[in-house]
Automatic annotation (TrEMBL):
<dbReference type="InterPro" id="IPR053136">
    <property type="entry name" value="UTP_pyrophosphatase-like"/>
</dbReference>
<feature type="domain" description="YgjP-like metallopeptidase">
    <location>
        <begin position="27"/>
        <end position="237"/>
    </location>
</feature>
<dbReference type="InterPro" id="IPR002725">
    <property type="entry name" value="YgjP-like_metallopeptidase"/>
</dbReference>
<dbReference type="Pfam" id="PF01863">
    <property type="entry name" value="YgjP-like"/>
</dbReference>
<protein>
    <recommendedName>
        <fullName>YgjP-like metallopeptidase domain-containing protein</fullName>
    </recommendedName>
</protein>
Length: 249
């Protein structure tokens, strides 16, 4: 994905809008609103800044509706500030973080409904945070790799080109796909249920056949994952909910 420029639209109301602008070989302008309320526009290389701004302004009501939707989702959960005792997720199931003193060098582990995190001193939250991150990072690479291979093997009939997987933290995306066949999955996906993870994987695999969100792309999504819209809605809701919980990364 090419580097993004920042576009500041003063004419946007009720407040100026900051847009992450990416120029690509696509033929039409695509606008996306993410759960953190950020806005991204992917435009054809030949489009002038003026034309892009004009088209974004024409989509003003739609952009505001999407932002209002995500704001509503964010307001449904109260923020948790304390790490010890805070709730977290793994594969869609909810757990509670339990930090406890231990004189042995042990890794974090799931025990029942708890993610138990041993530290030399119960007050050493930085060590606890590091061990939580290590636990999630290891699980993410292992689970997402296996899940990716399983979904890929189930869709060999698509005759996809050679594909490579990366697991890398991203700020606003669950996944991405490059023209060279590299699919990137966000390790935060391991917090979500497996059917939502599968949705992201299928979405990115479809981009290997159709790089843009064209009619053909959505037709392929409908064909191989008929309930993708329901999964997407659940993932959007889950992503907004996560903002009220401590990030494991």
């Amino acid at each position: 994905m090419p580097e993004a420029d920042t576009l500041y639209i003063k004419e946007f109301t009720p407040a100026p809008l900051q847009v992450s602008l990416v120029r690509s070989k696509r033929k039409t302008l695509a606008i996306s609103v993410y759960p953190d309320l950020s806005v991204e526009a992917i435009s054809p290389l030949a489009s002038s800044t003026g034309d892009i701004v004009e088209k974004i302004l024409k989509r003003r009501r739609w952009i505001l509706r999407q932002q209002a939707y995500f704001k509503k989702l964010q307001s449904l959960a109260e923020p948790q500030l304390s790490l010890n005792g805070a709730e977290t997720f793994y594969l869609g199931k909810q757990y509670r973080i339990k930090i406890y003193p231990c004189d042995q060098d042990r890794h974090a582990s799931l025990q029942g409904r708890y993610l138990q995190v041993p530290v030399p001193d119960a007050k050493e939250h930085e060590i606890a945070r590091i061990r939580i991150t290590e636990w999630y990072r290891t699980r993410a690479k292992d689970y997402l790799s296996k899940r990716f291979e399983k979904v890929l093997s189930n869709h060999q009939h698509l005759k996809l080109p050679e594909v490579h997987l990366r697991v890398t933290l991203m700020k606003t995306r669950w996944g991405s796909c490059t023209a060279s066949g590299t699919i990137t999955l966000n390790p935060l996906l391991v917090l979500a249920a497996s059917d939502l993870i599968d949705y992201v994987i299928v979405h990115e695999l479809c981009h290997l056949k159709h790089p843009n969100h064209s009619k053909s792309f959505y037709q392929l999504m409908d064909k191989i994952q008929p309930d993708w819209k329901e999964r997407k809605a659940k993932l959007d809701s889950f992503g907004a909910k996560l903002k009220s919980y401590p990030s494991p990364f």
